[in-house]
Amino acid sequence: MQSQQMQLILDVAGDLFFEYGFWNAKVSDIAARSEISTASIYKAFESKDALFRAVLARGLNQLKLLTKPLPEEEDPVSRLMQASQRYQDLCASPLLRDLIRAPIEHNSIPLTFRRSMCRQIRAALEGICMPPLQACGEAGLLDPSRLKDTFRLLSAYIEHQTLWYGLLVSPTGRNPVKHDQVAEEAVRITLSAYPPRQDEAFAPFDGDAQRVVGIPQRSHRAPKA
User: Fold this and answer.
1) Chain centroid to CA 225
2) What is the DSSP secondary-structure string of 8-21?
3) Which conformational region is residue 10 in: left (phi greater than 0), alpha (psi within -120 to 50 degrees), or beta?
4) Splitting the chain (225 residues) into consecutive groups of 10 residues, what average pLDDT does each group show?
């Protein structure tokens, strides 16, 4: 089977699986919509379950592409704001919601596959936020020893306000839930929750980003001898 036909099958299968669920989406409907015979689909994918896993695997690859690092900004808070906004946009996207919802609805997926999916999703999302969090730690805006904690707080706030709201409160809605300033609030909460320790020195930091997130001005202190 040609690569274009394979991609078409995965496109159509993804649409039907995520719209109707694994059990209600029929291979015959996928064949009819893609204009490829059912026999050809089963020749390419040994079962409906295998086709479903292929759809999920491609979705994970798409997520990894979307979470690739962007060009870095000099201002660490601006970088963190940008990363938080990207995180929120992903949480509001059908792609991420479908990747998380699908294994729940199709619980016959092997546990090892589901665990692997969770690890890959978390690693992709962590890849967005950890570099700017590290930059904030180096700039004296966060406790550098607690960056994992800061990421957990940042991600929990964004996911609660965006992803889980869309899945639990309005699970039938396909449009992203709009929450203004969620990313900015997440940054404010994170920077406030894990300030640098009092015995740490930090470089002077100012600029528009500092004003946006409401960080108080700090004077420079030299390291202790």
Assistant:
1) 43
2) HHHHHHHHHHHHH-
3) alpha
4) 86 89 90 93 92 92 88 83 93 87 74 87 93 93 94 94 68 52 92 80 46 43 37
Rg (CA), the chain: 22
Output the CA–CA distances (angstroms, integers) from residue 125 to 68, 161, 186, 208, 215, in the order listed: 10, 16, 15, 26, 25
Instruction: Let me know the angle formed at the C-alpha of 134 by 182 and 141, rounded to the nearest 5 degrees.
Output: 70
Q: Decide: helix, strand or coil at residue 23.
A: coil
pLDDT of 77: 92
Q: What is the pTM of this model?
A: 0.75
By C-alpha distance, which of 123, 147, 125 is closest to 135? 147
Residue 121 near residue 102 (C-beta atoms within 8 A) = no
pLDDT of residue 152: 95
Whether the Cβ atoms of residue 178 and residue 162 lie closer than 8 Å to each other: no
Four-residue CA torsion sign, 212, 214, 219, 225: negative
Angular region, 92: left φ>0, alpha ψ -120 to 50, beta rest: alpha
Rounded Cα gap, residues 110 and 3, in angstroms: 27
Amino acid letter for position 107: N
